[in-house]
């Protein structure tokens, strides 16, 4: 897939990484999950995102996920790969591996652990782009990296051809709309929301698509939502989003205090997928706890109400 | 206007407080501004919000604003009054004055300066409601009070009849959608967005209306946006919002570094209103700087492009 | 007491505001508390600080506290008065009242609720100084006002004669040392730490004194610590501080989750003072909860171990 | 060096990583720097800390630094190695390499990029300790990892034998004193401050030593400060610290806005070392800028005043 002709849009689920009880990558489950997504009609797949526990997997495990995904998907849809590390040279090393493995695009955050600023962050993206011949998405996720990418910088990087777009998980809808509006004229620049429950509003405002973690659990719902929006049927899009927003309440099943906020959401997605029979178990990477029997029971009720069991 | 029968919805601009060069309330300008809003067809007016520089006005100036607004509006639309102070008893004292002056509803934040928690915040709203016989709106503005009101607490307070709704300036669209979805069944509970550039998306997602500072400058635009959304004409709503988003770029006219972020937005609104001839000058409360000639010239160009001069 | 000749140093406890069960100022208890402090040999008294629940008291209650304190102290030691409000003109109004009531100095924070910056904050202090003829202390308390006062700004304001010193509750010891070092040559500029458990280290580093909330409970201990440090007996100062640090564990008596962080510390001080018979009860301002019987029992044990009962 | 018998105390500089113009590790300069430190009488050396740009070096460069340091030091003083990565399993992989290379101890932070909590963080340290047979230090650095390690957790981990101590770069002196006081009875538990300008106060309060980045530039000064404190000569300790605090002003030489806060401090240390002829150049890791000629000139003046040129 060549850089020039690929455009990115639609539903691109950030795929969770199923694990065995021993904490190793469960490639069989991963392949079943990928198949479910493709059958549902998603427009792309994003592995090794935050939802994929990229920050927790070892280098070997990351390589295994990428290899499995690219091999199994076989070019049916583009595969985007997260290249998360603290700073530029470390990201480039990881990105080079993703390129060699056959990724269609890479997704990188601002530097973290580093005490950085906007100028360094722009240099960071420019250096990654210069070093790695793949479409590069900027992943705006202040809750993890503790800096925000400004619309002005993102649009400038888009204009230079440094980035092919943005995955916005900033939770800042004002900034998101400014980005959409200011990038409206740019070619080959895609803006995705990473938030599960505002996809209808974001699409109305002009977003190119969504990267919703909840799509792991219900890709068909998000595909319907996307197609309704494409057809201009906003009432239907809103109704589908309302249904998915109710489904999203599974992330509140984990007992607060027992399970961290990071583990709660991902743990809920994995548990729902296990209940649906897509993946074998709901094991989380260390040091996160997996959801327990009682929390699983709560999720089961929500899935039943949603007609997903 | 009795508590039982009033419902709140639509466009409710948070009115800026025009000042004379000496820093006193310019009541004549305030009346002209209120008239412009009513003529444009707004559904309510909110005085002494953050846009009204409530945190900067003295007690006497606040009283003057309330008296002027309620007198001039004369019941044509409901007047909501901000009752901002640090903690419960201080808010109640201010709210009692608003009630005596004839306010139709009051708007209160969580405690600030205080090092507080969710339980105290809920008690805070319950105590205000118990003490003051007026519809009470919770104003969620973490950028100023440094705590976030959770959807669960707000829905619970709504269910108890403590609050009549929420003005959300949290910038957190995920929380906003959860609030909309979880309060969907509640009667007499209105959810407003306070963000200027996402009103189309928020209305699609089910918001009751908007409290956009930019409506000071262009109330007709927001009224058109609201009416398009009410009619289910989402393409028109989006187009109007795009136009207003471009207009919102006036807040970027102030030179970064010269003017604080707090002064930039409000200063831009006041300057635009002065350019439009609605208010006499663009003076800001101390210690904020007013926009200068060069910044004013930048705003003039944007207004001309928007056809507002 | 004239501005020119007063210098400030030593132990200046931030006095809690005793309340009756009904939440009114308990002036009799307040007078007993002030007497205890003076008998212990403190060098000044600070009323209406955060420890005095300044953010929670109504205007009338604040006036009552100031009047009671200044009347009862009768010039034996200087009385500093907190003049807390959101922005410049509101602070000036409060400060003018403190001056009329006979305060020896006033203590003001940066603007809060406001979205401000360093330039506005400097203007804020300059305007207060210009308007109110009293020594002005800058109170650096980012945990409440959410901005930090830089050493460079504080030293500049000191050099201009705008501020007479700083009460540092920033919890940032690096900044504190830079402030001490950079202000080392300034006349009539006093730097106080507001932190109870690092007074020995701060005095070694050159601080002018301390404003420790825990001194409400054990003023004699802090006076001994101060005198040891003055005598260059650092081992004795450290030993006294260690004892007071153990005593400070009373702030951990309140059950986490039941009582807010803001209420826990002040509630512990009030409860200890009630147990010591200095004040009548441990009532807190709304919406804060007062410490309960079980929490009080925990504090009693600590006081007994400290030989304070 | 066996785990049982090593105790850690005194001055343990966090060694910067000299780079060639091409951005590769300059091992010759590194060896000269290590020699300077040992000659000055430091008590240990810490490589691959934040000052060592651990977050910026590639895996190969990190290995080169560890190998060079352990080889060159040859057991004269203990060598602590930073094992920074996002989460538990990734840290263990890095730590295992440090152990094989001959490290005397390892230093790990809380998880980052992860959205974690206190329970996960404790599990994280316990798992690292269980997997890697080396003394483990907890590195408390909220400005980078965005969570704070509580004294209670650290003392509990010390009691369990999980950690051998703490490097505190939290900037929270209250928490630091609580940690010192609560760990006072623990054997084999060392508490180091990571802040350059408060070492005298921290040692008075009972700290085991310091890990000051500025000691790269002037190890002799910190060794004198440590020895004065050990001898109970607090006036001398304070005077030496005042001198070092003045020297620390080199971190303000970089032009604000041109160089990030992260690059300013480290860049100043490298530049000062280059001016002193200890290392060859002041190159920083990408994407950080190196200090320029004008900034270097400013630092030169400070070094001259300090008698270090």
TrEMBL record, chains A, B, C, D:
GO cellular component: cytosol
Pfam families found in the cross-reference section: DHDPS
Entries under Gene3D superfamilies matching the protein: Aldolase class I
EC number assigned by the record: 4.3.3.7
EC class (word): lyase
Gene Ontology MF: a single term: 4-hydroxy-tetrahydrodipicolinate synthase activity
Entry-linked PROSITE patterns: DHDPS_2
Active-site annotation: 139, 167
Keywords of this entry: Lyase, Schiff base
Chain positions recorded as pyruvate binding sites: 211
UniProt cross-references to SMART domains, sorted A to Z: DHDPS
Similarity-based family: Belongs to the DapA family.
Protein's name according to its UniProt entry: Putative dihydrodipicolinate synthase
């Amino acid at each position: 897939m060549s850089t020039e002709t690929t455009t990115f849009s639609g539903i691109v689920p950030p795929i969770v990484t199923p694990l065995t009880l021993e904490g190793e990558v469960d490639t069989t489950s991963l392949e079943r999950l990928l198949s479910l997504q493709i059958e549902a009609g998603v427009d792309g797949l994003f592995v090794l995102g935050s939802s994929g526990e990229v920050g927790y997997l070892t280098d070997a495990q990351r390589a295994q996920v990428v290899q499995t995904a690219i091999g199994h998907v076989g070019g049916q849809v583009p595969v985007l790969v997260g290249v998360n590390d603290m700073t530029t040279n470390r990201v480039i090393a990881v990105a080079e591996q993703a390129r060699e493995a056959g990724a269609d695009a890479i997704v990188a955050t601002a530097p973290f652990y580093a005490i950085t600023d906007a100028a360094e962050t722009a240099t960071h993206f420019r250096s990654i782009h210069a070093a790695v011949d793949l479409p590069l998405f900027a992943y705006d996720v202040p809750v993890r990296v503790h800096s925000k990418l400004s619309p002005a910088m993102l649009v400038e990087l888009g204009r230079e051809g440094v980035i092919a777009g943005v995955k916005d998980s900033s939770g800042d809808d004002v900034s998101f709309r400014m980005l959409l509006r200011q990038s409206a004229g740019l070619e080959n620049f895609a803006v995705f929301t990473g938030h599960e429950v505002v996809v209808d509003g974001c699409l109305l405002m002009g977003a190119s698509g969504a990267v919703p973690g909840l799509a792991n659990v219900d890709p068909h719902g998000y595909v319907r939502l996307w197609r309704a929006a494409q057809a201009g049927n906003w009432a239907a899009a809103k109704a589908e989003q309302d249904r998915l927003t109710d489904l999203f309440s599974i992330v509140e099943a984990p007992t607060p205090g027992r399970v961290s906020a990071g583990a709660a959401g991902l743990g809920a997605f994995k548990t729902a997928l296990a209940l649906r029979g897509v993946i074998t178990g709901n094991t989380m990477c260390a040091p996160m706890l997996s959801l327990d029997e009682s929390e699983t029971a709560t999720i089961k009720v929500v899935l039943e109400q949603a007609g997903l069991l």
